[in-house]
Protein backbone atom coordinates (compact mmCIF):
# COMPACT_ATOMS: atom_id res chain seq x y z
CA UNK A 1 0.00 0.00 0.00
CA UNK A 2 2.84 2.37 0.89
CA UNK A 3 4.45 1.81 -2.53
CA UNK A 4 1.09 2.47 -4.23
CA UNK A 5 0.66 5.78 -2.36
CA UNK A 6 4.22 6.78 -3.28
CA UNK A 7 3.57 5.94 -6.95
CA UNK A 8 0.37 7.98 -6.99
CA UNK A 9 2.16 10.87 -5.36
CA UNK A 10 4.89 10.73 -7.98
CA UNK A 11 2.28 10.78 -10.79
CA UNK A 12 0.59 13.82 -9.25
CA UNK A 13 3.89 15.66 -8.90
CA UNK A 14 4.80 14.99 -12.53
CA UNK A 15 1.31 16.04 -13.70
CA UNK A 16 1.46 19.34 -11.81
CA UNK A 17 4.96 19.94 -13.12
CA UNK A 18 3.84 19.42 -16.71
CA UNK A 19 0.89 21.75 -16.21
CA UNK A 20 3.21 24.35 -14.71
CA UNK A 21 5.63 24.05 -17.63
CA UNK A 22 2.81 24.27 -20.21
CA UNK A 23 1.39 27.30 -18.45
CA UNK A 24 4.82 28.90 -18.37
CA UNK A 25 5.39 28.25 -22.07
CA UNK A 26 2.01 29.72 -22.97
CA UNK A 27 2.63 32.74 -20.78
CA UNK A 28 6.09 33.28 -22.26
CA UNK A 29 4.51 33.33 -25.71
CA UNK A 30 1.78 35.66 -24.51
CA UNK A 31 -0.93 32.95 -24.55
CA UNK A 32 -2.78 33.65 -21.33
CA UNK A 33 -6.55 33.45 -20.85
CA UNK A 34 -6.69 37.23 -21.21
CA UNK A 35 -5.45 37.21 -24.80
CA UNK A 36 -6.52 33.77 -26.03
CA UNK A 37 -9.79 33.18 -27.89
CA UNK A 38 -11.15 29.62 -28.10
CA UNK A 39 -13.60 29.06 -30.98
CA UNK A 40 -15.85 26.02 -31.52
CA UNK A 41 -17.14 25.91 -35.10
CA UNK A 42 -18.24 23.58 -37.88
CA UNK A 43 -15.47 22.01 -39.95
CA UNK A 44 -14.02 24.12 -42.78
CA UNK A 45 -16.38 26.96 -41.87
CA UNK A 46 -14.02 29.93 -41.88
CA UNK A 47 -11.23 31.28 -44.05
CA UNK A 48 -8.04 30.52 -42.10
CA UNK A 49 -6.48 33.69 -43.51
CA UNK A 50 -9.06 35.68 -41.55
CA UNK A 51 -8.06 33.94 -38.33
CA UNK A 52 -4.44 34.93 -39.03
CA UNK A 53 -5.52 38.49 -39.81
CA UNK A 54 -7.47 38.75 -36.54
CA UNK A 55 -4.47 37.49 -34.56
CA UNK A 56 -2.16 40.00 -36.25
CA UNK A 57 -4.53 42.94 -35.73
CA UNK A 58 -5.38 42.20 -32.10
CA UNK A 59 -2.49 40.17 -30.67
CA UNK A 60 -5.07 37.62 -29.53
CA UNK A 61 -4.16 33.95 -30.05
CA UNK A 62 -7.01 31.88 -31.57
CA UNK A 63 -7.50 28.26 -30.58
CA UNK A 64 -9.85 26.68 -33.11
CA UNK A 65 -11.79 23.43 -32.64
CA UNK A 66 -14.51 21.89 -34.81
CA UNK A 67 -17.68 19.83 -34.41
CA UNK A 68 -19.86 17.96 -36.91
CA UNK A 69 -23.33 18.32 -35.41
CA UNK A 70 -25.28 20.69 -33.18
CA UNK A 71 -25.91 17.84 -30.77
CA UNK A 72 -22.21 17.04 -30.40
CA UNK A 73 -21.45 20.74 -29.89
CA UNK A 74 -24.11 21.15 -27.19
CA UNK A 75 -23.01 18.00 -25.36
CA UNK A 76 -19.42 19.19 -25.16
CA UNK A 77 -20.42 22.64 -23.94
CA UNK A 78 -22.76 21.14 -21.34
CA UNK A 79 -19.96 18.92 -20.05
CA UNK A 80 -17.77 22.00 -19.64
CA UNK A 81 -14.43 20.33 -20.30
CA UNK A 82 -13.29 23.21 -22.52
CA UNK A 83 -14.21 26.85 -21.93
CA UNK A 84 -15.17 27.98 -25.44
CA UNK A 85 -15.42 31.74 -25.97
CA UNK A 86 -17.41 31.46 -29.22
CA UNK A 87 -19.56 28.68 -30.67
CA UNK A 88 -21.55 28.67 -33.92
CA UNK A 89 -24.79 26.69 -33.44
CA UNK A 90 -27.86 26.58 -35.66
CA UNK A 91 -31.12 28.27 -34.78
CA UNK A 92 -32.91 25.43 -32.95
CA UNK A 93 -29.74 24.68 -30.97
CA UNK A 94 -29.51 28.34 -29.92
CA UNK A 95 -33.07 28.17 -28.65
CA UNK A 96 -32.26 25.03 -26.68
CA UNK A 97 -29.03 26.49 -25.26
CA UNK A 98 -30.96 29.54 -24.09
CA UNK A 99 -33.51 27.33 -22.33
CA UNK A 100 -30.70 25.46 -20.57
CA UNK A 101 -28.92 28.67 -19.51
CA UNK A 102 -25.75 27.88 -21.47
CA UNK A 103 -25.24 31.32 -23.05
CA UNK A 104 -24.13 34.82 -22.09
CA UNK A 105 -26.01 37.82 -23.49
CA UNK A 106 -24.32 39.65 -26.35
CA UNK A 107 -23.39 43.31 -25.76
CA UNK A 108 -24.47 45.04 -28.98
CA UNK A 109 -22.55 48.19 -28.07
CA UNK A 110 -19.33 46.20 -28.56
CA UNK A 111 -20.35 45.03 -32.05
CA UNK A 112 -20.94 48.20 -34.09
CA UNK A 113 -20.69 46.20 -37.34
CA UNK A 114 -24.06 44.66 -36.53
CA UNK A 115 -25.46 47.59 -38.50
CA UNK A 116 -24.40 45.80 -41.69
CA UNK A 117 -26.65 42.78 -41.09
CA UNK A 118 -29.77 42.63 -43.26
CA UNK A 119 -32.78 43.13 -40.98
CA UNK A 120 -34.37 39.97 -42.43
CA UNK A 121 -31.84 38.01 -40.41
CA UNK A 122 -32.23 39.92 -37.16
CA UNK A 123 -34.83 39.49 -34.41
CA UNK A 124 -35.87 36.00 -35.51
CA UNK A 125 -38.11 33.80 -33.32
CA UNK A 126 -35.29 31.60 -32.01
CA UNK A 127 -33.54 34.65 -30.50
CA UNK A 128 -35.76 37.77 -30.25
CA UNK A 129 -33.73 40.95 -30.32
CA UNK A 130 -30.57 38.90 -30.94
CA UNK A 131 -30.01 38.96 -27.22
CA UNK A 132 -27.72 35.91 -27.35
CA UNK A 133 -26.57 35.51 -30.95
CA UNK A 134 -25.04 37.28 -33.95
CA UNK A 135 -25.73 36.12 -37.56
CA UNK A 136 -22.90 34.24 -39.28
CA UNK A 137 -24.23 32.31 -42.31
CA UNK A 138 -27.54 31.07 -43.65
CA UNK A 139 -28.58 28.59 -46.30
CA UNK A 140 -30.82 25.74 -47.34
CA UNK A 141 -30.94 21.97 -47.68
CA UNK A 142 -31.46 20.77 -51.23
CA UNK A 143 -30.57 18.27 -53.93
CA UNK A 144 -27.24 18.32 -55.77
CA UNK A 145 -27.21 16.15 -58.89
CA UNK A 146 -24.69 15.11 -61.49
CA UNK A 147 -25.86 15.78 -65.07
CA UNK A 148 -23.20 13.47 -66.54
CA UNK A 149 -24.54 10.52 -64.55
CA UNK A 150 -28.26 11.36 -64.75
CA UNK A 151 -28.22 12.46 -68.38
CA UNK A 152 -31.40 14.30 -69.37
CA UNK A 153 -33.21 13.45 -66.12
CA UNK A 154 -34.30 16.60 -64.29
CA UNK A 155 -34.67 16.69 -60.52
CA UNK A 156 -37.20 19.19 -59.16
CA UNK A 157 -38.80 17.39 -56.22
CA UNK A 158 -38.03 15.27 -53.17
CA UNK A 159 -40.32 12.64 -54.67
CA UNK A 160 -38.10 12.40 -57.74
CA UNK A 161 -35.57 10.59 -55.55
CA UNK A 162 -37.83 7.54 -55.34
CA UNK A 163 -37.43 6.90 -59.08
CA UNK A 164 -36.28 3.23 -59.49
CA UNK A 165 -33.79 4.38 -62.13
CA UNK A 166 -31.79 6.04 -59.34
CA UNK A 167 -30.85 2.74 -57.69
CA UNK A 168 -27.66 3.08 -55.59
CA UNK A 169 -27.20 6.71 -56.71
CA UNK A 170 -28.15 8.80 -53.66
CA UNK A 171 -25.98 10.13 -50.83
CA UNK A 172 -27.74 11.42 -47.71
CA UNK A 173 -26.50 13.72 -44.95
CA UNK A 174 -26.07 11.84 -41.69
CA UNK A 175 -28.54 14.06 -39.82
CA UNK A 176 -31.89 13.17 -38.26
CA UNK A 177 -33.51 16.55 -38.83
CA UNK A 178 -32.40 16.74 -42.47
CA UNK A 179 -33.38 13.19 -43.46
CA UNK A 180 -36.60 12.99 -41.45
CA UNK A 181 -37.41 16.48 -42.75
CA UNK A 182 -36.94 15.25 -46.31
CA UNK A 183 -39.34 12.39 -45.66
CA UNK A 184 -41.90 14.71 -44.06
CA UNK A 185 -41.66 17.31 -46.83
CA UNK A 186 -42.08 14.60 -49.48
CA UNK A 187 -45.46 13.88 -47.90
CA UNK A 188 -46.24 17.62 -47.71
CA UNK A 189 -45.90 17.64 -43.92
CA UNK A 190 -43.96 20.23 -41.94
CA UNK A 191 -40.36 19.35 -41.17
CA UNK A 192 -41.22 20.35 -37.58
CA UNK A 193 -44.16 17.91 -37.44
CA UNK A 194 -44.81 16.39 -34.01
CA UNK A 195 -47.61 14.07 -35.10
CA UNK A 196 -46.23 10.59 -34.40
CA UNK A 197 -48.40 9.00 -37.08
CA UNK A 198 -46.96 11.40 -39.65
CA UNK A 199 -43.43 10.68 -38.43
CA UNK A 200 -43.90 6.92 -38.71
CA UNK A 201 -45.35 7.42 -42.20
CA UNK A 202 -42.31 9.49 -43.18
CA UNK A 203 -39.93 6.87 -41.79
CA UNK A 204 -41.69 4.09 -43.69
CA UNK A 205 -41.48 6.10 -46.88
CA UNK A 206 -37.75 6.64 -46.27
CA UNK A 207 -37.39 2.86 -45.83
CA UNK A 208 -38.77 2.45 -49.34
CA UNK A 209 -35.99 4.74 -50.62
CA UNK A 210 -33.32 2.30 -49.41
CA UNK A 211 -32.55 0.67 -52.79
CA UNK A 212 -31.63 4.09 -54.18
CA UNK A 213 -29.33 5.05 -51.27
CA UNK A 214 -25.63 4.54 -51.86
CA UNK A 215 -24.53 5.81 -48.43
CA UNK A 216 -25.44 7.97 -45.44
CA UNK A 217 -22.36 10.07 -44.74
CA UNK A 218 -20.95 13.21 -43.14
CA UNK A 219 -18.36 15.51 -44.67
CA UNK A 220 -17.33 12.72 -47.07
CA UNK A 221 -20.32 13.66 -49.21
CA UNK A 222 -18.26 16.51 -50.68
CA UNK A 223 -15.46 14.22 -51.83
CA UNK A 224 -17.83 11.55 -53.18
CA UNK A 225 -19.79 14.05 -55.28
CA UNK A 226 -16.57 15.71 -56.44
CA UNK A 227 -15.28 12.33 -57.66
CA UNK A 228 -18.52 11.52 -59.52
CA UNK A 229 -19.15 8.51 -57.27
CA UNK A 230 -22.88 9.20 -56.96
CA UNK A 231 -25.54 10.84 -59.09
CA UNK A 232 -27.30 12.70 -56.28
CA UNK A 233 -26.43 14.18 -52.91
CA UNK A 234 -28.80 15.71 -50.37
CA UNK A 235 -26.59 18.52 -49.14
CA UNK A 236 -26.43 21.95 -47.56
CA UNK A 237 -26.37 24.82 -50.05
CA UNK A 238 -22.81 25.90 -49.29
CA UNK A 239 -21.47 22.44 -50.05
CA UNK A 240 -23.38 22.53 -53.34
CA UNK A 241 -22.10 25.97 -54.30
CA UNK A 242 -18.49 25.10 -53.49
CA UNK A 243 -18.64 21.96 -55.64
CA UNK A 244 -20.41 23.76 -58.48
CA UNK A 245 -17.58 26.30 -58.64
CA UNK A 246 -15.25 23.39 -59.36
CA UNK A 247 -17.44 21.16 -61.55
CA UNK A 248 -19.71 22.14 -64.44
CA UNK A 249 -21.64 18.87 -64.33
CA UNK A 250 -23.37 19.58 -61.01
CA UNK A 251 -26.73 21.29 -60.46
CA UNK A 252 -28.50 22.29 -57.24
CA UNK A 253 -32.25 22.51 -56.75
CA UNK A 254 -34.56 23.48 -53.91
CA UNK A 255 -37.36 20.87 -53.99
CA UNK A 256 -40.78 22.17 -54.97
CA UNK A 257 -42.40 20.65 -51.83
CA UNK A 258 -40.21 22.88 -49.65
CA UNK A 259 -37.14 22.37 -47.49
CA UNK A 260 -35.12 23.77 -44.61
CA UNK A 261 -33.99 27.38 -44.28
CA UNK A 262 -31.30 27.43 -41.63
CA UNK A 263 -29.31 30.05 -39.75
CA UNK A 264 -25.96 29.62 -38.01
CA UNK A 265 -25.18 32.34 -35.48
CA UNK A 266 -22.22 33.12 -33.24
CA UNK A 267 -22.85 32.81 -29.50
CA UNK A 268 -20.83 33.17 -26.29
CA UNK A 269 -21.09 30.11 -24.00
CA UNK A 270 -21.63 30.88 -20.33
CA UNK A 271 -18.31 29.24 -19.43
CA UNK A 272 -16.33 31.59 -21.73
CA UNK A 273 -13.08 32.91 -20.25
CA UNK A 274 -12.67 35.80 -22.67
CA UNK A 275 -16.04 37.35 -23.60
CA UNK A 276 -14.26 40.60 -24.47
CA UNK A 277 -12.23 38.91 -27.20
CA UNK A 278 -15.39 37.10 -28.35
CA UNK A 279 -17.07 40.45 -28.99
CA UNK A 280 -13.95 41.67 -30.82
CA UNK A 281 -13.99 38.61 -33.08
CA UNK A 282 -17.70 38.94 -33.82
CA UNK A 283 -17.23 42.55 -34.84
CA UNK A 284 -14.19 41.61 -36.94
CA UNK A 285 -16.13 38.93 -38.85
CA UNK A 286 -19.00 41.34 -39.50
CA UNK A 287 -16.70 43.87 -41.20
CA UNK A 288 -18.10 43.86 -44.77
CA UNK A 289 -14.81 43.08 -46.51
CA UNK A 290 -13.99 40.32 -44.04
CA UNK A 291 -17.52 38.94 -44.35
CA UNK A 292 -17.24 38.92 -48.15
CA UNK A 293 -13.89 37.13 -48.02
CA UNK A 294 -15.30 34.56 -45.59
CA UNK A 295 -18.36 34.01 -47.79
CA UNK A 296 -16.27 33.51 -50.92
CA UNK A 297 -14.22 30.89 -49.08
CA UNK A 298 -17.00 29.00 -47.27
CA UNK A 299 -19.65 29.14 -50.00
CA UNK A 300 -22.71 29.72 -47.82
CA UNK A 301 -24.95 32.77 -48.02
CA UNK A 302 -24.04 35.84 -46.01
CA UNK A 303 -26.55 37.85 -43.96
CA UNK A 304 -24.25 40.88 -44.30
CA UNK A 305 -25.91 43.21 -46.82
CA UNK A 306 -22.84 45.45 -47.11
CA UNK A 307 -20.60 42.45 -47.87
CA UNK A 308 -22.62 41.79 -51.04
CA UNK A 309 -21.02 44.89 -52.59
CA UNK A 310 -17.64 43.12 -52.52
CA UNK A 311 -18.91 39.88 -54.03
CA UNK A 312 -19.38 38.54 -57.54
CA UNK A 313 -22.72 39.62 -59.04
CA UNK A 314 -23.29 36.19 -60.57
CA UNK A 315 -23.10 34.60 -57.11
CA UNK A 316 -25.47 36.92 -55.28
CA UNK A 317 -28.05 36.91 -58.09
CA UNK A 318 -28.27 33.08 -58.13
CA UNK A 319 -31.70 32.33 -56.63
CA UNK A 320 -30.68 28.79 -55.74
CA UNK A 321 -28.43 30.28 -53.05
CA UNK A 322 -30.17 33.61 -52.49
CA UNK A 323 -33.80 32.45 -53.02
CA UNK A 324 -36.54 34.93 -53.87
CA UNK A 325 -39.57 35.55 -51.66
CA UNK A 326 -41.72 32.97 -53.46
CA UNK A 327 -39.23 30.19 -52.82
CA UNK A 328 -38.43 31.40 -49.32
CA UNK A 329 -42.12 31.12 -48.44
CA UNK A 330 -41.87 27.33 -49.01
CA UNK A 331 -38.88 26.97 -46.71
CA UNK A 332 -39.07 26.27 -42.98
CA UNK A 333 -36.74 27.01 -40.11
CA UNK A 334 -36.07 24.12 -37.72
CA UNK A 335 -37.83 24.60 -34.42
CA UNK A 336 -36.73 23.29 -31.06
CA UNK A 337 -38.76 20.07 -30.82
CA UNK A 338 -38.08 19.49 -27.13
CA UNK A 339 -36.07 16.62 -25.69
CA UNK A 340 -38.69 13.91 -26.02
CA UNK A 341 -39.69 14.68 -29.59
CA UNK A 342 -36.09 15.18 -30.71
CA UNK A 343 -35.26 11.80 -29.17
CA UNK A 344 -38.15 10.29 -31.16
CA UNK A 345 -36.83 11.81 -34.40
CA UNK A 346 -33.39 10.37 -33.60
CA UNK A 347 -34.90 6.98 -32.80
CA UNK A 348 -36.76 6.82 -36.12
CA UNK A 349 -33.67 7.99 -38.00
CA UNK A 350 -31.57 5.27 -36.35
CA UNK A 351 -34.18 2.66 -37.29
CA UNK A 352 -34.04 3.94 -40.87
CA UNK A 353 -30.24 3.64 -40.93
CA UNK A 354 -30.46 0.10 -39.53
CA UNK A 355 -33.03 -0.72 -42.22
CA UNK A 356 -30.55 0.53 -44.81
CA UNK A 357 -27.97 -1.97 -43.53
Model description:
The chain is an alpha/beta fold and 357 residues long. It has 14 helices and twelve strands. The strands form three sheets. Strands 5, 6, 7, 8, 9, 10 and 12 form a seven-stranded mixed beta sheet that branches. The chain has a three-stranded parallel beta sheet with strand order 2-1-3. A two-stranded antiparallel ribbon has the order 4-11. α2 (48-58) links the parallel β1 and β2 (61-67). α6 crosses α7 (196-207). Mean pLDDT is 90; it is low at 1-32. This is ABC transporter substrate-binding protein. It holds the Pfam family SBP_bac_8. Keywords: Periplasm, Signal, Transport.
Please give the count of helices.
Answer: 14
Radius of gyration: 22 Å
Q: Specify the biggest β-sheet.
A: 7 strands, mixed
What fraction, in percent, of the residue positions are helical? 40-55%
Number of strands: 12
Return the average pLDDT rounded to an integer: 90
Q: Provide the low-confidence segments as ranges.
A: 1-32
Structural class: alpha/beta
Overall 3D geometry? Answer: globular
Strand content: 15-25%
Name the helix and strand elements from N-terminus to C-terminus, one letter apiece.
HEHEHEHEEHEHHEHEHEEEHHHHEH
The separation of the N and C termini measures 52 Å
Amino acid sequence: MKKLVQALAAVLIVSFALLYIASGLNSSQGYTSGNTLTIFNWGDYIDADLVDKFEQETGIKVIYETFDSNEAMMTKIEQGGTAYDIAVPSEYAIEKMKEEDLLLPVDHSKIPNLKYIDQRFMDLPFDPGNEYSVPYFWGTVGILYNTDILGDKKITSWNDLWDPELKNQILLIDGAREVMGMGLNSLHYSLNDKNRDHLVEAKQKLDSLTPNIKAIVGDEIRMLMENDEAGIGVVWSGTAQELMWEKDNLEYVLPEEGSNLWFDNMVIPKTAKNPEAAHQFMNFILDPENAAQNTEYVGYSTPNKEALKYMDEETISDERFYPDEEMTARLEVYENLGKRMLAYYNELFLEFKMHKK
